[in-house]
Write a structure and sequence with these properties.
The chain is built from 9 helices and 12 strands. By secondary structure, the chain is of the alpha+beta class. The protein has one domain: B-lactam Antibiotic, Isopenicillin N Synthase, Chain (Jelly Rolls, Sandwich), CATH 2.60.120.330. It has an 8-stranded mixed sheet. Helix 2 links the parallel strand 1 and strand 2. Helix 3 crosses helix 6. The N terminus is likely disordered. Belongs to the iron/ascorbate-dependent oxidoreductase family. It is found in: Cytoplasm; Nucleus. It holds the Pfam family 2OG-FeII_Oxy. Involved in the regulation of shoot development and salicylic acid (SA) homeostasis.
């Protein structure tokens, strides 16, 4: 079986392969310009993210309090952590174990899923977009469509043998959580709880499973360049620290790992839908000299060709339409043709104020 992409398997080198080769230096293609490198001498500032207990969402007498907490978190940071989300710790651990087992497979096995085509529903790769990136990221990944799971799971890796069961159970659970959170975010905007319910039900779920291997010179590179997510909500599970968010003063803040908690990130679709009341947040991933890190990002968005724009209920004279309509496919076309480290997709959607 030949790899799916156009890149020759002979020219493909993953970040994990370099680690296994024990390269003493980061190859030139991974070295960032000095102004874009992480600063190892700066203090590691922790992000004081809200931690929201979701158990009260199901209690009518407490729901409004939780909705207010979510509103505040969305307005102030666009990032928050959730606990008591009803996904068992064992399900989360099994998913991370499945990720580790996949990335530990021989490179020949993983290469069966390698592709440069960002439209492939299942693809293994490295960096952000190895075909376009001027500077590569110290990251290997597998991306897989996950909703409806019955349509896609047969395409997922058959090795390791438990991968489909473990990752599938987590994918199904995290989608149920996403629906609850989307309802709460809509309610926090003053919209009905079931706003766009049909569109969300028919929408997409893309699981991005990331491996950030130990890096010999972590001060020269990044696991993922600064970016914001394209979808509505991203729910992230991480094995260890490495994720950082940019605050309003352009400082990088490290997101702590809380056992049992999941990270919720607002994506570009929420920024557009809210007409700018909520913002998607720029984040990046640093790497580590001693350990590898795994994360599982479940990215939820509307269907591939479904156009969306600001909610009409959130547009008035004081808040004119601030964004053009767009679809998930528009985003994919953008990253296919652009180096996303040089500019954000959402900036192409912003309407210029009339002066």
């Amino acid at each position: 079986m030949e790899p799916k992409g156009e890149t020759s398997s002979k020219s493909f080198i993953s970040a994990m392969s370099l680690t296994k080769l024990r390269v003493p230096r980061v190859p030139e293609r991974y070295v960032l310009p000095p102004s874009e490198r992480p600063n190892p001498s700066s203090p590691d500032l922790p992000a004081m993210l809200p931690v929201i207990d979701l158990s009260s969402l199901h209690d009518p007498s407490l729901r409004s309090h939780t909705i207010n907490e979510i509103r505040r978190a969305c307005k102030e940071t666009g990032f928050f952590q959730v606990v008591n989300h009803h996904i068992p710790l064992s399900t989360m651990k099994d998913a991370l174990d499945a990720a580790q087992d996949f990335f530990n497979l021989p490179i020949e096995e993983k290469m069966l899923l390698m592709s440069d085509n960002i439209h492939e529903p299942i693809r293994y790769g490295t960096s952000m977009n190895q075909a376009n990136d001027k500077v590569h990221c110290w990251r290997d990944f597998i991306k897989q469509y996950a909703h409806p799971i019955s349509k896609w799971i047969h395409l997922w890796p058959t090795n390791p043998p438990s991968y489909k069961e473990k990752m599938g159970k987590y994918a199904t659970s995290v989608r149920e959580l996403q629906i609850q959170l989307f309802e709460a975010v809509m309610e926090s905007l003053g919209l009905s709880r079931d706003y766009m319910q049909d569109e969300i039900e028919e929408g997409s779920q893309v699981m991005t499973i990331n491996c950030y291997p130990a890096c010999p010179e972590p001060e020269l590179t990044l696991g993922m360049a600064p970016h914001s997510d394209y979808g509505s909500l991203t729910i992230l599970l991480q094995s260890s620290p490495g994720l950082q968010i940019m605050d309003s003063d352009k400082n990088w803040l490290s997101v702590p790992v809380i056992e049992g908690a999941l990270i919720v990130q607002l994506g570009d679709q929420i920024e557009v839908m809210s007409n700018g009341r909520y913002k998607s947040v720029i984040h990046r991933v640093t790497v580590n000299a001693e350990r590898k890190r795994f994360s599982i990002a479940s990215l939820h968005s509307l269907a591939l060709n479904k156009k969306m724009g600001p909610a009409p209920e959130l547009v008035d004279e004081q808040h004119p339409v601030s964004y053009k309509d767009f679809s998930f496919k528009d985003f994919l076309d953008f990253i296919k043709n652009n180096d996303i480290s040089k500019g954000r997709f959402i900036d192409t959607l912003k309407n210029t104020p009339r002066g």
